[in-house]
Amino acid sequence: MSPSQRSTYFATLWPAACKAQGWNPKDAERRRDVTHAATGKASTSGLTEDQITLLFIKLKWLADPTNFDLAMADADPQAALKANKRVQVIYRIEQAARAGGFNEEYLIKAAEHKCAAHRVKAWRELPIKELVNFSRTIHARKRQPAPALQPPAGEPDPF
To answer: 114-129 in b/e burial notation, b at 16+ Cβ within 10 A?
Structure first.
């Protein structure tokens, strides 16, 4: 776990789950049991990103056991991982677009043919493989600088 993930786990998610379930947050054995139930490992050391995602989903559901979406995500880990991957790729596309100076309209236009080919209405609905390719495309594009203004031929440069 990264320091940020560790902080989220111990400072936010675990205490919230304990409060909702009536557990003692200092109960290390229960914490290991929950970690094992979510990841197949008793320790948070050496967890993969997917395992961390599954652990966080379980803790969020334990903190809010009446949330049907969280219950479904906990019950179907593969679907939850797929949904999480989609969120991550969309975030990367949006970040690359901002860094390149591209707005939402640009993304819509750039994905127009892919959307038509996959019969989806919006680029965010593309299959994950196409989203990954689209992410690479947007990341590779650079905003072109505005052309320098040149005085008309035969006139002196005013500067």
So the answer is: bbeeeeeeebbebeee
